[in-house]
Amino acid sequence: MDLRTLIATALNLPNERVREEFSKSLNDKTGFITVAVLTDRQIGREYKFTQNEVEIITSTREATISINAFGKNSLALIGKLNTLFYSSFFIQSLKGKNLSLVSVSPIRNLTLGIGGASEERANLDVVMSYNNRVEVSQNEIRKTDDIFIRKNR
Question: Is 104 helix (H, G, I), strand (E, B) or coil?
């Protein structure tokens, strides 16, 4: 279950109402939520070498994810999601994906006046941490063929 599916499940919404930010199939008549990664930064790393000549590189990362709601009651929907981030269901689901919740931003009311009406919009950002691990083979050099050293004069 990815983060979008997790949000849809927590809010009891159909999966198609929680989508990537740059979806081409928007329907203005139905409210929806977008989820997009804003930044992803490395906050630490570790290098290990095993006896099997394998280099293991572990990178600890933090990703800032923007969650936007559009449509009727979007502010209430984001408020509910803000609360659900601290539920046992959400915390355990994130843990199952090797993610941890670092922080949740304040909720922002981004409602806009468009023409003679208004469009309700709300937003919050979450920061999640995770680890990337890469294993790279470091094969031993057993023989060198014809190494030439040239001196510049």
Answer: strand
103 to 49, 66, 87, 128: CA distances (angstroms) = 34, 12, 14, 7
Half-sphere exposure in the Cβ direction for 73 (13 Å, CA): 6
Q: Return d(Cα 8, Cα 17) in angstroms, integer.
A: 7
Q: Provide the whole-model pTM.
A: 0.76
Q: What secondary structure does DSSP assign to 107-126, as a single string?
A: PEE--EEETTEEE-EEEEEE
Specify the residue for token string 């843990």.
95
> What does the pLDDT read at residue 113?
80
Quickly count: other Cβ atoms within 10 Å of residue 32's Cβ. Answer: 20
Report whether pLDDT(88) > 80: yes
Residue 53, pLDDT score:
80
